[in-house]
């Protein structure tokens, strides 16, 4: 279990405020901090990493005390087993992919680096320099490097917000894969509801330095419990009138779907609104596809 | 989307405990619905919202004989908005107002007009459930 109870005075864009967090995280789960920028999410991550010192409080990670203001305990960053991935990759530009990974290891184990390169699909890029890689590839390297340290906690600070939709989707899958494969405890900062739904076991909404709600993404964002089997959260892209009904175009991952709305629905919805699209398990039609071949528009991960 | 308030009055389940048939009371209308994996929030006596899509239901006039729709209730036509192909028909029922989308051909064949009494037909599998909306600060 990871238990975080910290306080720190911060100065925000709208004046000083107190970051006051009381949070528990189950091991091997993904917890997302969701909130506007400037509410203290990144500061909280930096406190966990030991880069920012709380004014008071206690941080306990799997039974080990990392910080305790009541008896002066404050482990330095290098003593905390933390993996961090930021929006801006933060790779060493003069080192190859492989060297970047090797550098992260306390005890140099080239074999483990090779395994990680293979697992994350980076083997072909091992001798390339970060500057020659795409954003998605660089972030994959940053993720591999963070995991290589076998962290007690993986901290992801809006790691995918600079990437395009498709790459973001692929890297979300990648994060889920390595999270489960290595049984990591992951703390993610995100302001993308779709991402929160896809990745998180639980979500904590942070507002003006305080956590206002915690729960599963469904509990927190939908504030009611629905009985539907198939559902996803997305954004309405457009609504147009067709005869006496309306057709809404809604993004669903990389695909677009059209959904029929009636007058009363359309009156309450507009493009840009975030919505839950749901269907009962009884409704979808399932058809076998022809013999599986390589999908034409599928771009390989690297 | 149509929405009726109701109370769960009965829960029946299959042997494996994954398929449920719920009996519901919506302002006196006895309805039933099917769903999988009943969440703990839904128990006998719970207040719920029943959601059903305007395009997933049917209406009938002078209905006779047996029909497999689990849910049948009377309603009165209060408005008809016509397009070229489809019509949006507003109905008043004991459980509240609801809307159904049918083809104009059906409206003409049934000679539907405002004030007419109809029977609303709704499959047990086409109803979704949600807890009543709570007012929260977020």
What does this structure look like?
The complex is a heterodimer of chains A (302) and B (138). With 302 residues, chain A is of the alpha/beta class. Chain A has helices at residues 41-49, 97-104, 110-119, 135-148, 165-181, 193-199, 217-222, 263-268, and strands at 2-12, 15-25, 30-34, 56-61, 64-68, 73-74, 82-85, 153-157, 186-190, 202-207, 210-215, 230-242, 245-252, 255-261, 274-279. Chain A has two domains: 2-222, Rossmann fold (3-Layer(aba) Sandwich); 230-279, Beta Barrel (OB fold (Dihydrolipoamide Acetyltransferase, E2P)). Chain A is 25% helix and 33% strand. In chain A, a hairpin with a 2-residue loop joins strand 12 (230-242) and strand 13 (245-252). The two termini of chain A are 36 Å apart. The mean pLDDT of chain A is 88. In chain B, the strands form two sheets. A five-stranded antiparallel sheet of chain B has the order 3-2-1-4-10, with no helix packed on it. A five-stranded antiparallel sheet of chain B has the order 5-9-6-7-8. In chain B, a hairpin with a 2-residue loop joins strand 2 and strand 3 (29-36). Chain B has a single domain, classed as Beta Barrel (OB fold (Dihydrolipoamide Acetyltransferase, E2P)), CATH 2.40.50. Chain B has one helix at residues 104-110, and strands at residues 2-13, 19-26, 29-36, 47-52, 57-60, 71-82, 86-93, 96-103, 117-122, 128-130. In chain B, 28% of the residues are buried. Chain A binds chain B through residues 205, 212-213, 220, 223-229, 243-245, 260, 262-265, 278, 280-283, and chain B through 1, 34-36, 38-39, 41-42, 49, 53-55, 81-88, 99, 101, 125-126, 128-134, 136-138.
């Amino acid at each position: 279990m990871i238990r975080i109870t910290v306080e720190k005075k911060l100065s925000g864009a709208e004046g000083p405020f107190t970051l006051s967090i009381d949070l528990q995280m189950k091991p091997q789960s993904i917890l997302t901090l969701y909130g506007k920028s400037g509410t203290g999410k990144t500061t909280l991550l930096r406190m966990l990493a030991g880069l920012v010192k709380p004014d008071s409080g206690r941080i306990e990670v799997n039974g080990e005390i990392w910080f305790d203001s009541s008896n002066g305990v404050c482990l330095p960053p290098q003593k905390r087993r933390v993996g961090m991935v930021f929006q801006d990759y933060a790779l060493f530009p003069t080192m190859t992919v492989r060297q970047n990974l090797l550098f992260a290891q306390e005890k140099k184990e080239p074999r483990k680096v090779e395994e990680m390169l293979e697992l994350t699909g980076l083997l072909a890029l091992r001798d390339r320099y970060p500057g020659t890689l795409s954003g998605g590839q660089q972030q994959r390297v940053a993720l591999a490097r963070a995991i290589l340290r076998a962290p007690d906690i993986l901290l992801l600070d809006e790691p995918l917000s600079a990437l395009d939709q498709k790459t973001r989707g692929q890297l979300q899958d990648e994060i889920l894969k390595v999270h489960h494969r290595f049984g990591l405890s992951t703390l993610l900062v995100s302001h993308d509801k779709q991402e929160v739904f896809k990745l998180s076991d639980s979500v904590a909404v942070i507002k003006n330095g305080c956590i206002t709600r915690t729960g599963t993404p469904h509990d927190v964002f939908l504030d009611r419990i629905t009985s539907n089997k198939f559902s996803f959260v997305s954004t309405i892209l457009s609504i147009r009138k067709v005869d006496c009904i309306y057709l809404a175009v809604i993004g669903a991952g990389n695909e677009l779907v059209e959904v029929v709305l009636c007058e009363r629905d359309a009156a309450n919805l507009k493009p840009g609104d975030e919505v839950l699209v749901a269907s009962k398990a009884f409704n979808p039609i399932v058809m076998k596809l022809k013999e599986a071949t390589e999908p034409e528009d599928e771009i390989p991960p690297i | 989307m149509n929405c009726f308030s109701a109370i769960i009055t009965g829960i029946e389940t299959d042997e494996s405990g994954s398929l449920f048939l719920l009996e519901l009371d919506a302002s006196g209308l006895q309805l039933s619905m099917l769903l999988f994996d009943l969440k703990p929030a839904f128990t006998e006596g719970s207040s719920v919202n029943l959601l059903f899509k305007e395009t997933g239901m049917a209406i009938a006039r002078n209905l006779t004989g047996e029909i497999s729709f689990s849910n049948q209730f009377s309603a009165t036509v209060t408005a008809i908005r016509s397009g070229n192909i489809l019509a949006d028909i507003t109905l008043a029922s004991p459980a509240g107002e609801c809307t159904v989308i049918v083809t104009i051909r059906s409206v003409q064949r049934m000679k539907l007009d405002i004030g007419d009494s109809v029977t609303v037909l709704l499959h047990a599998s086409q109803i979704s459930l949600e807890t009543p909306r709570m007012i929260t600060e977020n």
